Amino acid sequence: MVFAIVRAGGRQEKVEVGSIVTMNRVVADDKGKVTLPAVLLVDGDTITSDAEKLAKVQVTAEVLEDLRGPKISIQKYKNKTGYKKRQGHRQELTRVKVTDIK
């Protein structure tokens, strides 16, 4: 069983070939492919965490869709001063499917 821990949009995700991951928005190349940097590689009983060896490892993924996360409501209020502030936010996300770990 081969899997890798990759740096994906500011977080680390455990991925295998065929797994689908939702991460912060990334820009794909003209073919719709993304290369993710590996932090750890597990190949059966062999665990690779050396930075020089991980520089040669490539985890490629194809972009399935660009989407937006759920609406987050931000409200601030201070008592007796009349201060109220309401703000919303939706995170830009990308859903990718891992195609290859070399």
UniProtKB/TrEMBL annotation:
Coiled coil, from the record: none
A Pfam family: Ribosomal_L21p
Entry annotated with the keyword rRNA-binding: yes
PROSITE patterns tied to this protein: RIBOSOMAL_L21
Top-rank taxon: Bacteria
Subunit structure: Part of the 50S ribosomal subunit. Contacts protein L20.
Similarity section: Belongs to the bacterial ribosomal protein bL21 family.
Function of the molecule: This protein binds to 23S rRNA in the presence of protein L20.
Protein name (database record): Large ribosomal subunit protein bL21
